[in-house]
Amino acid sequence: MEVKGSADMNTDEQDRVILGQIVGLHGVRGWVKIFSHSAPKENIFSYSPLLVKWGGSWQGMKLLTWRKQGKGLVAQLEGYSDREQARALIGAEISILKSQLPKPRKGEYYWADLIGLRVLNLEGEDFGQVDHLFDTGANDVLVVKGDRERLIPFVQGQYVHEIDLKVGTIKVDWDPEF
Description:
Helix content: under 10%
Shape: elongated
CATH class of the largest domain: Mainly Beta
Strand order of the largest sheet: 4-3-7-1-2-6-5
Number of strands: 13
């Protein structure tokens, strides 16, 4: 399979942002089902090229077309014209380079920038690192793994008091017993 697109496939993993995954097949003409982490979910198709981890390496793939299908998304990628070809892509992660994202406004953060940050309470107790985040509808939640797992609402000003990306820390107002 020829690599399409102009993104640098040799960049470090931390220079990529995972936007979704190929989770299934749709029809017989090579269309695939896409699970998107972006909000709104259709934004995954705003970037070109999409980097797809296939065969153990990242490859740029050109999106030919996409559409909503029920509550999900389906897409056709260049070079995949039948169901059997597309089957090899199931489970592949979809990413872009961080440099493709717009700069966040002051006080806004990409989830990818928060993952791995050390979380400390206001007294300086180390809770561990941000493993991942999830959205509850009301707010996002930090999943912090250290001596145990803690779920901390990502509500700036109330629970989250300081984020220092350069130092790599988040200071929270959170009881160590929770």
